[in-house]
Specification:
Aminopeptidase; globular; alpha+beta; 168 residues
Length: 168
């Protein structure tokens, strides 16, 4: 069955937490210590996404990529701290499906909902993700921040894209 995109139902959010946990652990395994990767749990992230979606569903957009009953990936986007800017705050793909086109499918969908200017944050050390975004037309804009993951400070790089006039 081909992967299709759809909006989440309440029952999907536990699966979102599980996939988020596994995706984060896989993507960051080369540069974050195991205790940071094990922060939280699939259940805790399921509860986090359930609660977050409950409060933000009117201002944010979540899209699921599903293959039958299996969750293949998801995106989450909404307003940025900057006026007139939308932020892609999450894109996660099942680690077994990285490189299969699921991430690209989710990104193309997200871009259609991010006009006129979009930003995202990526860990500086996450070279695979940075290459993925750069191939999609995103560019690091020189802004950085630090943010903890599992008690470890991480450096994040902001990427931006100007989508006005369809310049994706």
């Amino acid at each position: 069955m081909p992967v299709v995109l759809r909006t989440p139902r309440e029952v999907d959010l536990r699966k979102v937490g599980d996939l988020h946990f596994r995706s984060r652990a896989s993507a960051y395994a080369g540069f974050l210590p195991p205790e940071a990767l094990n922060f939280g749990s699939p259940q805790a992230l399921g509860e986090y996404w359930t609660e977050r979606w409950r409060w933000e569903r009117d201002t944010h957009r979540m899209t699921l990529a599903v293959d039958g009953d299996e969750l293949a990936g998801f995106t989450y986007l909404g307003p940025s701290e900057e006026p007139g800017v939308r932020e892609l705050s999450a894109i996660h793909v099942d680690p077994a499906l990285v490189g299969t086109g699921v991430g690209k499918l989710l990104m193309v969908d997200a871009l259609a909902h991010l006009e006129p200017r979009a930003v995202l944050w990526v860990l500086e050390q996450n070279e695979r993700a940075r290459r993925f975004y750069e191939r999609g037309g995103w560019r690091a804009d020189g802004v950085t921040r630090t943010d903890p993951i599992g008690g470890y400070e991480t450096l994040q790089v902001r990427y931006a894209m100007d989508l006005e006039g369809g310049n994706a």
